[in-house]
Amino acid sequence: MKNTNQESDVKKSIHRQRRALRRESFRKFCRRFRKNKGSVVGLAMLSIIILIAVLAPVIAPYGPFYNHFTPKSGPGTVNWLGTDELGRDVLSRVIYGSRVSLLVGLAASALATVIGVIVGCLAGYGNRNVSTLLLKITETFQMLPMFFVAILLSAAFGPSLGLVVGVVGFMSWPSCARIVRGEFLSLREKEFVTAAKSIGCGKMSIVFQEIFPSVIPQVIVNASMRMATAIMLEATLNFFGCGDPLRVSWGKMLNDSRTYLRSAPWASIFPGIAILITVLSINLVGDGLNDALNPKFRER
User: Fold this and answer.
1) Among candidates 274, 257, 176, which has minimal Cα distance to 217?
2) Number of C-beta neighbours around residue 232 at 10 A
3) How many domains does the chain have?
4) What whole-number distance in Å separates Cα of residue 28 and Cα of residue 217?
5) HEC secondary structure over 144-196
6) Chain center to CA of 281
7) Residue 125: inside a domain, yes or no?
8) Can you say whether residue 251 is alpha, beta or left, with left for phi > 0 and alpha for psi between -120 and 50 degrees?
9) pTM of this prediction?
10) Range with the poorest average pLDDT among 33-42, 121-130, 289-298
């Protein structure tokens, strides 16, 4: 009974120390992130884009399918970014298009991260046979051409938003899985893992309470990069007609306006600029996260 109480006290003490270290690590992370001015600018830009997407019905001057304007009219006081071939306001469509692009980026990145973390944990802490099998599966997915798989599935099941999210998410997880697996292999023999085993912690407790918190920084950085890639892929797939035809997205706007690029270039330029700014802001935030979470910078 006495030994049980002592083990319980030791576990509580370890948990308290871990929480204190995490709070201190978070404060240091915030200080390091603020030192990177480009990342702060990127975060501000990304926050504005997300706010625009959330408040699209409020701030958009017209509906995305409102087409009672002169087709292909240039930017002016009524239509700040001009109109497209059907007389729809380009500014309103760019604003509403941010919703689909960000939704695909977030959903696909989250799906890829969840799958990658699960596979990486099993491959990094499981037995040799499981690790070898999962590594072969990961390599197989890395060899599959994502773009052509999306086109094939779009032809088989029809273009849709869920298809884009599923393809990008299910095809993007290998990079996260390899990162998590590598970190687990390097951490599973460390002293704190051995100490956790010595006080009777189970395998799941060791995986998710001892090792995985040390892997979270790398997972966050990878997820931010996956989000930028997912937005680019969504735009590319929509440009080639693999997205949902009933939803407004930046890629679909580029697809719709490609045939009259010379007569109404603004219909292509502004959604292209929106994609550029969004991807740039995400990459800036990702660089800041990498610098702030990288162990080489922790003492700065």
Assistant:
1) 176
2) 18
3) 1
4) 13
5) CCHHHHHHHHHHHHCCCHHHHHHHHHHHHHHHHHHHHHHHHHHHCCCHHHHHH
6) 12
7) yes
8) alpha
9) 0.80
10) 289-298
Name the token pair of 59: 């701030």
Q: Which of 73, 157, 66, 173 is nearest to 117 (CA)?
A: 173
- Cα–Cα distance, 18 to 104 (Å, whole number): 35
- Which sign, positive or negative, has the C-alpha torsion 83, 84, 86, 92? negative
Q: What are the tens digits of pLDDT across the range 127-175?
A: 778 888 888 888 888 888 877 887 788 777 777 778 888 888 888 888 8
Give the DSSP letter of residue 73.
Answer: P
DSSP 296: G
Q: Return d(Cα 191, Cα 69) in angstroms, integer.
A: 69
- Cβ proximity of 223 and 132 under 8 Å: no
Q: What is the CATH number of the domain that holds 79?
A: 1.10.3720.10
How confident is the model over 59-63, as a mean pLDDT?
90
Closest Cα partner for 100 from 149, 155, 161?
Answer: 161
pLDDT band at 299; cut points 50, 70, 90? very low
| CA pair distance 182, 215, nearest whole angstrom | 10
DSSP 8-state assignment for residue 211: I
Q: Evaluate whether 153 touches 163 at the Cβ level (below 8 Å).
A: yes
pLDDT of residue 139: 84
Does residue 276 sit within a domain? yes
Residue 174 sits in which domain range? 33-297
Angle at 253 between CA 235 and CA 148, to 5 degrees: 35
Query: Which of 146-155, 234-243, 252-261 has maximum average pLDDT?
Result: 252-261
The residue length of the chain stands at 300
> Token pair for residue 82?
């001009």
